[in-house]
Amino acid sequence: MAPGSALIPRLADTGPGTAALRYRFALPARPGSVADARQLTRARLREWRLDADTYDSAVLIVSELVTNAVVHTASAQVVCELERSEGALRISVRDQGHQPGGPRISPSADDEHGRGLLLVDSLSAAWGSHDAGDASGRVVWARLVCGPEAAC
Hints:
Blueprint: E1 6-7, E2 10-15, E3 18-28, H1 32-48, H2 52-72, E4 77-85, E5 88-95, H3 115-123, E6 126-131, E7 138-145
Helix pairs in contact: 1-2, 2-3
């Protein structure tokens, strides 16, 4: 486990006959935490036995979203949550100090920033962001549909 991280695995009941698996971890908002987030994500997704395409896409999306939270916000900590349920995987990353307007895909491939969200957009079935419920936090999320072979 990475220094400063807090792991909160849990099983959540999502209705009759269904269960969602959730895994949450918190890391300091510093560049080295991106590699830690990838490592924690890989370990959990291997345990959940996701199909290879979903696994690879999820690791890349976590990397991009955590990088954005570290680079573009005034956060001390980022919290990542993975939720597997009903044929889908939801990834969310919460920061503590977002910029006004939320994340945006860069309008030009020549722009220095914003290309990571192009990857998130192309790999996910849907993605977006919303205020985290306090004055300074934001949650950026992405939803992946698991492959037909997966027990997701």
